Amino acid sequence: MTHPHRLPCTALGATLLALALAAPGAALAGKAHEHGVVKLDVAVDGATLTVTLDTPLDSVLGFERAPRTPAERRAADEALSRLRNTAGLFIPSAAAACTAAPPEVKAPVLEASPPAQKDGHADLEATYTWRCEQPAQLRELGLQLFARFARMQRIEAQVAGATAQKKLTLRRPAGKLPL
Ligand SMILES: [Zn+2]
To answer: How far apart (Å, rounded) are the C-alpha atoms in residues 101 and 114?
Structure first.
């Protein structure tokens, strides 16, 4: 059974957050998330740059269930193809000479046999990996996420570099993440 999503997204997100805080054990099962907010984990480990994107499906597609019409199916395919286009989303510092490996995009509710949904919400996770010839030159990661996905409002980024870790919040229309 899917949730009709009649509540405003932020109100629903806040309610879920409150529920998650009240019952930590339920947080994992409930998949609390806030529409419009994307989590980005960026790690530099030796010559490897890894970016993990964790987003409510709503923020890339506008709904969080299996497509029901040909138009929704096309919208889902279009969103997935944008997410699989690494070069169209992320641009590491050119001097670092990074080469992207094929990304991994996981959105269970968009697959052929979607799992049953308990609360009407669904997430998408994508992992991007590069091998860099000059990893010391990785100064920033150019981002096209806000440009490609109109529903994204905020990116909560966690950066684990060679020497330090930091957390950063980027708001639309930010296009760069310092590393
Ligand atoms: Zn949701």
So the answer is: 27
Residue 59 falls inside a structural domain? yes
Q: Which helix (H) or strand (E) holds 43?
A: strand 37-45
With a threshold of 0.70, does the pTM exceed it? yes
What pLDDT sits at residue 31? 53
* Residue 3 domain flag: no
3-state secondary structure of 38: strand
Q: Ligand 1 centre and the CA of 33: distance in Å?
A: 6
Query: Which of 52, 51, 11 shows the shortest CA–CA distance to 34?
Result: 11
First to last CA, the chain: 42
What residue numbers bound the domain in which 127 lies?
34-178
Could you identify the residue written with the tokens 């996770």? 125
* C-alpha 21 to ligand 1 mean position (Å): 17
CA of 39 to the centre of ligand 1 (A): 14
135 pLDDT band (50/70/90 cuts)?
A: very high
Residue 22 within a domain: no
In a domain? residue 13: no
Helix, coil or strand: residue 101:
coil
Distance 126 CA to ligand 1 centre (A): 17
